[in-house]
Amino acid sequence: MKRLNMKKLLLIGALAISGHVVMAQQHRCGTDEHLETLIKQNPSIKDAKAKFEADYRQFQATYKPEDYKTNQQLGKKAAPKYIIPVVVHVFHNNGSENISEAQVLSEINFLNRSFRNNVNDTVNRRAGWFKASPESTDSFYYDYKNLAADTEIEFRLAKKDPQGNCTNGIVRIHTPLASKGNDDLKKTSVWDTKRYFNIWVVRSINRGNSIGIAGYAQFPFGFGGGASTDGIMVIHNEFGNTGTSQPGQTPNVTTSTHEVGHWLGLYHPFQISTDSCGLDGDGVMDTPPTYFNPSSTEPLRNRCNNKSFNTCSTEKPDRPDLQEAYMDYFIGNCASNMFTLEQKGRMHKVLDDIRKTLWSEENLRFTGVIDGPATCPPVAAFNTQTPVTCAGQKISFLNFSYGGTISTHEWTFEGGTPATFTGLNPPQIQYDAPGTYDVTLKVTGPNGTTTTLLNDYVTIQPKSANLPKDNYTADWWYQNNWKEKGWRFVHENPKNQFARFPISYENNASMRLLRDPFNALSSVGTVSSLISPSFDFTGITNPYFEFYYAFAQGTLSANVGGGNTQEQLRVYSSIDCGKTWQTRSTVGSSAISTIGTGTAGTLASTIDFIPSDKSKWKLVRINGNAIPKTDNVLFKVEFEYAGGNNFYIDNVRVGLTTGLSQELLAEYLKFTAQPNPFNNATQLSYELANKEEVLVKVYDVTGKEMGTVFSGTQNAGIQKLELDRNTMNLRSGLYFVELNVGGNKLSHKIVVE
Ligand SMILES: [Zn+2]
């Protein structure tokens, strides 16, 4: 396995944050960090871990390696002592991560090969004479060939689901979060973890502030074996050895074996202590000590094919690093191929104790792995990339039904044309009336029929929203009227949502997304969006869309899921009711901070960033050709979080810069003069959608300026001004009041009697 030591990687992370070169991405195991997060969320898990280790030390006192030796000859092995029912949840977004059944089976086969020690490449297991230290004159014999264990554990895909229905043990879930695997995603598809070993396969893992995690496991202690997050999560291209995970790719098929080892209670060799001589870094006595010095920059001593020496006493002589071990981390291309006898003993203890419900005969019948159905009906599955569109438009559906041969596919499209279709791939379906509609697919194979109904799956928006013009502002200080006006927030992570906060750019409230540097809310890598109602810009030459935001980057901001290195703020527009979005503006890397760049722009995760004055806010504005001049324009602001501090948004506005026709201006401003004609005075009234610069002047018929009624800034809402003939020395006759709002001039006739 090509794995870097965890502590080494943490050091690289620290360097990257302080502005030095970022190392090439490495895939690795995220189990230890997952445990750290769990302990932060629930400190009692630390006690459970201590008890687990104490219990194991008791077991160790009576442990005898002979008890765990079996006939290692291929083809002559005893029946497995433990059979584990498995369910594999494949999260996908229609990409290559929707791995084939053959790829899943290849991983199950590899797990059985590795746990049953059906490994033909024993040539890579070493034995020989070794000196305990370079100075030593004594040599001793070591033998890793005879340390390798057949763990007598077998994995079988479930044949019955928790409801007793026939299954092939694979569940496929279409989700945009397939690239953001974490504990919250697990909970969206999990089978009773006391009855099934749950494996979740994703496109990439988004576990905290970590780079390039290939997989992570949940240790057995702390939950009584019943947590909805119990199991392992692995990226698709390290799962199995066919399809997207080819043999020889780096890293490789042993990732799942390593994670299952954790799930059955095995530690990394440096888990308990970094003591190079204690022989108990992993709590298991038959694995050799590891050596590393966390405060040193020298290379780790554990390397493939090396002969590193730990300075240990003669009673505990060093042995060559166990590069053969599945549970180790090494620099270099090690041929991991074994569990040790005591690792087997430790896993058996976990199975006999915490995980005993899994392999009971009752459960093996419940899950169908013994006496289960031979074959199942196929599973109907489909989706669309565009579940939201405008009336009159068409939607494509993709069929990804699975589970053996399928003879017929029968579709029903409520509200669509055609309303039914029989066949693998339906034509594009046209939707003419606004509303939400169900889509149903029924599939039939030699072993039966299943039907999948997606309730209210398709949303059809009115073609043109035709909203009143005062919808042009979303100001959070109103009584949340932005919702009534059709603005909405959409959150990938339902646990961390924008909420009203009483600090703002102007007035008294903004919307805030909370910081989550330790990913306690699983926010890192998730996107939160603000979507506008529809606007009509027909005949308008220069509208704008703008907002203010405030954000401080955190010292823990990091590359997650192989995507962006830091937070990103993106602005989009759509002219098809949100079916497709065009990028109009992107703010990323250090420029996204509103309090400076470099260290000035970052705040420690323990500090709550509050934009205390206007200098802590930045304006984002799009205008000109970035705004389509059509009748059905939506805007979307997207914020992708990466572990920084609080994010605020305020003063979201759609405005009109210049170039409005007199008709549109009259419609927007609702300008009146009452009475008109008048003798002494008249009252001018108009309505502002936004806070604006306003200039009101009076001219005579020759264009001569007679005076200024008002000059300054006015808030949104109805404005009233008094025009007195004496102040401006107006004689009887015709005049023009010119109302200049943000550069747009509207002229209105008045008559003085
Ligand atoms: Zn690990």
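qc> Residues 29, 31, 258, 262, 268 surround zinc ion (CB under 6 Å).
qc> done
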